[in-house]
Amino acid sequence: MSCRHRNGRLNAKSSGDENRNHVPSPWSQCRKRGADGHLRAKRETGSCNEKQHRRNESADRHSDIRHANFTTPESEGPVSRCGRQVDWGSQVENDELTRDVHRDMHRYRRRILAAEFTQRERMTSSESSRESPIPTGGEMETDEAVLLRRQKQINYGKNTLAYDRYMKEVPKHLRQSGLHPKTPNKFKKYSRRSWDQQIKLWKVKLHAWDPPTLEGQEKDLNDIEELELDDVMDIELDFPTLPDSQSRSACTTRSITSLEDDDCSSTPNKVMKTEPSLEPHTA
Amino acid sequence: MDPKEDYRIQSFDPETQALLKTALKEPGSVNLEKVSNIIVDQSLKDQVFSKEAGRICYTIVQTEAKQSNGNVFRRCLLNRLQQEFMVREETRARSVQEWVCFVTFICNIFDYLKVNNRPMVALVHPVYDCLLRLAQPDALMSEEEVDCLVLQLHRIGDQLEKVNSPRMDELFFLLRDGFLLHKGLSSMAHLLLLEVLEFRAGGWRLSSTAHNYYYSELAD
Questions:
Q1: pLDDT in tens, A170-211
Q2: Residue A39 near residue A68 (C-beta atoms within 8 A)
Q3: According to the model, what pLDDT value does residue A90 have?
Q4: What is the ipTM for the molecules in this complex?
Q5: Quick one: which of B56, B101, B145, B201 could link to B7 by a disulfide (CB 3.0–4.6 Å)?
Q6: Sign of the dihedral through C-alpha A212, A216, A222, A225
């Protein structure tokens, strides 16, 4: 919709204004592809009229192939940043992913705030309220592109037979921290490397539940707990009830939520040990 | 609940009906690309089916998502729809009936296949493109196309307007022009267009007096 509007305005401008200076249209700058789906050639900021002309041309072809990067009224930015995904299947998937991420983000924020409120009520005045820092606002990852990428990575891990089997075998209430694979929390600030490493480790652990060729490994990892972060309501904000892990987590960084308490405090597992060193990294 | 009744699959041969029934219950166990092609192919031929094919698609999509968190079927369906959309002008030139079936089908998909209770973004412009095509002077000459256009507007007009109001305005400019200026319109076409103009003007509802005017003498 907005794509068409902009086309209209641009068309009007180009026909009326011969003396336009060589400022390229900001809109054409951020579109990797023309409306016909083909990559734009890298242009210098040369003739603006040439760009306008191309815009008009591609506008005529516009009705045949949808541009991938519409900014719709409901979205907060281009729905699909990657111009490659012109096909409807991908567009719909990306749109769905974006909405899911935003919804998760709102829920997460609310839960954090609610838990923070509860925690403050329970704390006595002698305890420092800074013992369990909660990420709000600037300490939480909110960049949409980052969250989308992370969610996609999580989805790859979850769309596996291993994950299905793991889910069936270990009900959430029986999971134990430290040994069970745990979905990395996409809302926490991590560097790119740190996050990718966590995802890798998580997927490696999930392999223990691969269909029967890997029987030996399954027994070791049976007690590992995992948090389902796509259903944010399941996130265990357990700092009010686990005082010992709570104080240990406070030693690391301010930005850690109690979600990672279990990881950095208790596990004897060799694999898990690397996680505390990853925690302090900030994005 | 008889799948035959609900999903209007009576027109398929028994083997295909069986396949579709399996797809509805266990989408993971069938070739979903094949199923999506079967459904689309039939929608382009069978007007009755194209009007309600969205339902069977919806069920398969939901079931697949629930059972395996997959969306293979939806993806295949959408991409096949996209292919058909790209060649719609050729389709129309070859067979107006097939073109009308296509529009009916894509609008039905738009109606049924929602994402988070919202229409799929990828379909909004294509649906508008189709309806705008139907509002062109050459299409208004054919009662089949006018009939299709007003039917879709009755079914999804309000939803379409909600997601993109300027394009709905654009469409109705064409409809008004067509109604007023087009010399070759049949009286039936005139009637259908006038009704839909009033329908939208009334907030996608027809007043009872208008309803009496248009429908008191028409067979259901």
A1: 888 888 877 888 899 999 999 999 999 999 999 999 998 888
A2: no
A3: 92
A4: 0.87
A5: B56
A6: negative
Residues in B closer than 8 angstroms to A158, CB to CB, are: 69
Q: How far away is chain B from the Cα of A15, in angstroms, using its nearest Cα?
A: 22
Nearest Cα of chain A lies from the Cα of B28 at a distance, in angstroms, of 13
Residues of B in contact with A79 (CB under 8 A): 121
Percentage of residues of chain A with pLDDT beyond 70: 40
**Environment class of residue A197 by beta-carbon count within 10 Å: exposed (0-12), middle (13-18) or buried (19+)?**
middle
Cα separation, A283 vs A179, whole angstroms: 26
A64: nearest CB among B86, B115, B121: B86
Query: Taking chain A, what is the end-to-end CA distance rounded to the nearest angstrom?
Result: 35
Mean pLDDT of chain A: 65
Provide mean pLDDT across the span A108-114.
90
What pTM value is reported for the model? 0.65
What is the C-alpha to C-alpha distance for residues B145 and A160, in angstroms, rounded to an integer? 47
